[in-house]
Amino acid sequence: MAAPSLHSSNTTTQTSFSISHAMTKNFVSILCFFLVLYPFFAMATSANIFFGNYGENVEGMKYDLFPEILKEEAVARLNELGKVSDANDYLERTFQSPASIRAGNLLRAWMEDAGLKTWVDQMGNVHGRAEGINPSEKALLIGSHLDTVIDAGYFDGSLGIICAISAMKALNATGRLDKLRRPVEVIAFSDEEGVRFQSTFLGSAAIAGLLPVSALQIHDKNGVTVQGALRASSIETTEENLLQLKYEPESVWGYVEVHIEQGPVLENVGLPLGLVKGIAGQTRLKVTVRGTQGHAGTVPMNMRQDPMVAAAELIVFLESLCKQPDYYLSYDGQCASSTVESLAGSLVCTVGEISSWPSASNVIPGQVTFTVDVRAMDDTGREAIIYEFSNRLYHMCDRRSVFCNVERKHDANAVVCDPDLSTELKSASHAALKRITGEDPGDVPVLMSGAGHDAMAMSHLTKVGMLFVRCRGGISHSPAEHVLDDDIWSAGMAVLTFLETLL
User: Fold this and answer.
1) Nearest one of 394, 409, 368, 385 to 318, comparing CA atoms
2) How far apart are CA 492 and CA 272, in angstroms?
3) Within 13 Å, how many C-alpha atoms sit on residue 349's CB side?
4) What is the separation of C-alpha 5 from the centre of its chain, rounded to a whole number of angstroms?
């Protein structure tokens, strides 16, 4: 019996050693595997790559990078909205057109998907609001416009609305939407471009209290009035309820707008976001030149009163005036040298539309009209340019024996963004870029805006702040307008990060 017992003991000892040896080998293998993968796990955790679960920030608040909402869904929605058009071959969506109504319905559905209470007001603006903890607190308004120019791109206006909705949805997805310390309202303004009625900011001006009741009777090229266009969309707008659209300044904390840059600066510096410190003032003129209509083959050249040639001379003069304002403007107290210097850096003038009557190749026209768009950061300088142009215009028209008239169709003074709000937006942009990339992006660029935005109208109601988003080639108002998917993500994350300061 002893032998078998000894043999059994040796077998047990060998078995135990084999198991122990195998466990050690497995442990070493697992340890080596972990050590190899550890840097990748560390990088993933640092950059919040694992989107399925929420990470922890330094203060313990749970969040994630929300690529499904702020990037993928936002990009898909911008593409869907970009296909909502009144034209078959290009994007056109003007005030209260059928496509505008369809776009508004889409935006309203997406706002509700984000947990917002929605409505459409008497100027066709689409609203989505979260009341937060205290509905009586002053509200933050975030917005941009849903209308487009003719043959437009997908991002002008729409990007700001979609980014705001996406940021609100991300808050809602994490149960934080109702924890905001103040109400937040997203507004899709019905008209900013002014294409249909040649009167910009119909939507935001109504909310800011700038829109006169007479604007309801402005008519388009087909004779349809603003009031008629609204009525065709089942919106009954009277002088009384138009005035009631105005928000009281005491009810609003501030206004924020995200918009494509429409210029090349951000692309040149290689960053997706920039802070806007101010918006150039703008004046739109309509110039009418009337002459004597006649046969193209029978009226001698020296006997003509041709409004087309007069208009051409005026347009060329405008270009010279705006290229060399210091040459034409005197320093006699009407325009200081500092004003002329500021114009040299920001003044731009454009003739964007010209038409003639009766517009036939074999007829000397009887009337020519053209538009003038003047923009500058210095309001005094802008007025000086308009004065000089108008003065020279009447002299030129007298010399050519034609009648000229200048109508001011739109005026907006330059706007300076609120310093405190700008500081918060700049900080949020920096944090958002770092949050996505895991790297310090450096200083966020500070830019001026030469384009008009709804923030110009809203500045009469409350403090305003703006962010620009990089666009390819600086191209805008064109089908070639493009924003990278990752830049859309960055913009949405910047809005979200800013909103998180209100929790």
Assistant:
1) 385
2) 12
3) 23
4) 88
**What whole-number distance in Å separates Cα of residue 366 and Cα of residue 308?**
9
Quote the radius of gyration of the chain (alpha carbons, Å).
Answer: 31
For 359: left if phi > 0, alpha if psi spans -120 to 50, otherwise beta; the answer is left
Q: Are 357 and 432 in contact (CB under 8 A)?
A: no
Which is it for strands 367-376 and 281-290: parallel, antiparallel or unpaired?
antiparallel
14-49 tens-digit pLDDT: 444 343 444 444 544 544 444 444 444 433 433 333
Quick check: 340 and 377 in contact, CB under 8 A?
Answer: no
62 pLDDT above the threshold of 80: no
Residues forming beta bridges with residue 406, ordered by sequence position = 287
Give the pairing of strands 273-279 and 446-449.
Answer: parallel
Give the pair of three-digit tokens for residue 206: 């109504």
| Stated length of the chain | 503
Peptide bond connecting 135 to the previous residue in cis, omega within 30 degrees of 0: no
CA distances from 137 to 91, 131, 134 (A): 39, 9, 6
The Cα 307–Cα 290 span in angstroms is 6
Quote the tokens at residue 22. 């195998």
* E-strand stretches of 343-475: 348-350, 354-357, 363-364, 367-376, 403-412, 415-416, 446-449, 464-469
Residue linked to tokens 């505008």: 100
Q: How many other β-carbons are positioned within 10 Å of the β-carbon of residue 225?
A: 15
| pTM over cut 0.85 | no
- The answer to whether 389 touches 317, Cβ cutoff 8 Å, is yes
Contact 294, 363 (CB under 8 A): yes
Question: Per-residue b/e over 400-429, b at no fewer than 16 CB within 10 Å?
Answer: bebebeeeebbebebbebbeebbebbbbbb
